[in-house]
């Protein structure tokens, strides 16, 4: 098994048969020099909570791309985000980010989320058919993130395209030369744009996330412009790509299991449990990476310092050792289903509350507006060619 195992057309269409083989093959399998992969829930969950497992992002870049790759703009930009840091730097940065991106700030966005969803559905109107991905799932989180950052929604499309190119750098399989060049260009484009936004907020603060980050302080600590730029980019790409793909994945899952779709129509109060289960069943984020910072013993194995572990959360969330009938949707698992869809440990997703809110509103509004919707070619969907971020390129709907 090597990195190329996770980049075949069959894998992109349906990774779960491969995940099953991987789980059955062993707890931790070699995938490269000093690199292992696992798809077992117990191991992923334990390692995400283990402070001896940390982030050596640029080391993992070198493992996949070679020694000189770490200096490229896209990898430098991602290395400055809280997602790629260890304590104490991570602790300081996340504390400041959480003060700006807190529950109160998110709850203020409920009306915006609901209004944005209604507006997009109004634009679709009474069309006999539409593309759920391009006309609803993709623009919804982009427009909401533009509101959060107080940037023109007209800029959202171009920024979203750049975010999609940049986020491909998270993939397990290395990008080819063309895709890597595109990711580098996207990183520079986003950095330039948000530096300008920061300058504007310093001159004229507002009631938005960027202004909060510019002015946030904790015991004298503040964020540098470089830290703000990188983490605003992270918020934008995470809020855009992960949520839009998750809306699409959830609708594919529900449409393929119409009894569950009908159950949600009859009982919309079950939406929170339904969203949690859809995220477990086919999450948009399929992988996280950690490195042993010191010796770690797990499952009768010893991870030496510097060992990189690629943890397939998509595989772990279908582990039959934890979930009964893992390849089926069951809303009665409860809203506290032990899913790893938002990661775990100190790097648990900062935007989890907002993502859940967007998902709940999106699914309920779709079901209410188009109660008789039917999909087109559910068995012939084109999925993004990414092994980290899973999503469908298009989902045609008849109303």
Description:
The chain has 399 residues and is an alpha+beta fold. It has one domain: Cytochrome p450. The protein is 52% helix and 8% strand. It has a five-stranded mixed β-sheet with strand order 1-2-8-5-3, with helices on both faces. A three-stranded antiparallel β-sheet has the order 4-10-9. The longest helix is centred in the middle third of the chain and has 32 residues. The mean pLDDT is 88.
Layout of helices and strands, plus pairs?
Layout: H1 9-13, H2 16-25, E1 29-32, E2 35-38, H3 41-49, E3 53-54, H4 57-65, H5 73-79, H6 89-100, H7 103-107, H8 110-124, E4 129-131, H9 132-137, H10 139-149, H11 156-167, H12 177-203, H13 209-215, H14 225-256, H15 258-266, H16 271-281, E5 288-292, E6 296-298, E7 301-303, E8 308-311, H17 313-316, H18 352-369, E9 374-375, E10 396-398
Parallel strand pairs: 2-8
Antiparallel strand pairs: 1-2, 3-5, 4-10, 5-8, 6-7, 9-10
Contiguous runs where pLDDT drops below 50 for at least 5 residues: none
Largest sheet properties:
5 strands, mixed
The number of strands is: 10
- The CATH topology assignment is Cytochrome p450
How much is the radius of gyration in Å?
20 Å
**Strand numbers in spatial order across the main sheet:** 1-2-8-5-3
**Strand percentage:** 5-15%
Give the overall pLDDT as a whole number.
88
Instruction: Tell me the name of the CATH class.
Output: Mainly Alpha
**CATH H-level superfamily title:** Cytochrome P450
Residue share in helix: 40-55%
The backbone outline, from C-alpha atoms, is globular
Separation, N- and C-terminal Cα atoms: 44 Å
Specify the CATH architecture.
Answer: Orthogonal Bundle
> Which structural class best describes the helix and strand composition?
alpha+beta
Total domain modules:
1
């Amino acid at each position: 098994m090597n990195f190329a195992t996770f980049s075949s057309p069959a894998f992109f269409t349906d990774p779960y048969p491969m995940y099953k083989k991987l789980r059955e093959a062993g707890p931790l399998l070699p995938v490269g020099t000093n690199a292992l992969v696992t798809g077992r829930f117990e191991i992923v969950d334990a390692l995400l909570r283990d402070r001896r497992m940390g982030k050596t992002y640029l080391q993992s870049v070198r493992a996949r791309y070679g020694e000189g790759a770490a200096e490229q703009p896209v990898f430098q930009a991602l290395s400055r985000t809280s997602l790629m840091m260890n304590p104490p730097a991570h602790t300081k940065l996340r504390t400041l980010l959480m003060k700006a991106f807190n529950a109160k700030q998110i709850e203020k966005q409920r009306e915006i989320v609901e209004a944005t969803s209604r507006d997009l559905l109004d634009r679709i109107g009474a069309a006999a058919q539409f593309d759920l991905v391009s006309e609803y799932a993709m623009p919804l989180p982009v427009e909401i993130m533009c509101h959060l950052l107080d940037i023109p929604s007209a800029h959202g499309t171009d920024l979203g395209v750049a975010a999609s190119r940049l986020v491909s750098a998270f993939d397990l399989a290395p990008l080819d030369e063309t895709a890597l060049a595109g990711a580098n260009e996207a990183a520079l484009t986003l950095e330039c744009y948000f530096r300008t936004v920061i300058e504007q907020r310093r001159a004229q603060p507002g009631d938005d996330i960027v202004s909060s980050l510019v002015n946030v302080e904790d015991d004298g600590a503040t964020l540098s412009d470089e830290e703000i730029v990188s983490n605003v980019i992270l918020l934008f790409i995470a809020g855009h790509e992960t949520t839009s793909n998750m809306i699409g994945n959830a609708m594919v899952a529900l449409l393929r299991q119409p009894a569950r779709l009908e159950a949600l129509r009859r009982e919309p109060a079950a939406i929170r449990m339904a969203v949690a289960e859809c995220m477990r069943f086919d999450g948009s984020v399929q992988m996280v990476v950690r490195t042993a910072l010191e010796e770690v013993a797990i499952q009768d194995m010893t991870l030496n310092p510097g060992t990189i572990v690629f943890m397939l959360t998509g595989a772990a969330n279908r582990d039959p050792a934890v979930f009964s009938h893992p390849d089926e949707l069951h809303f009665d698992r409860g809203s506290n289903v032990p899913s790893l869809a938002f990661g775990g440990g100190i790097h648990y997703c900062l935007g989890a509350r907002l993502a859940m809110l967007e998902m709940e509103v999106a699914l309920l509004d779709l079901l209410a507006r188009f109660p008789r919707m039917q999909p087109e070619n559910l068995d012939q969907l084109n999925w993004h060619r990414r092994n980290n971020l899973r999503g469908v390129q298009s989902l045609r709907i008849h109303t």
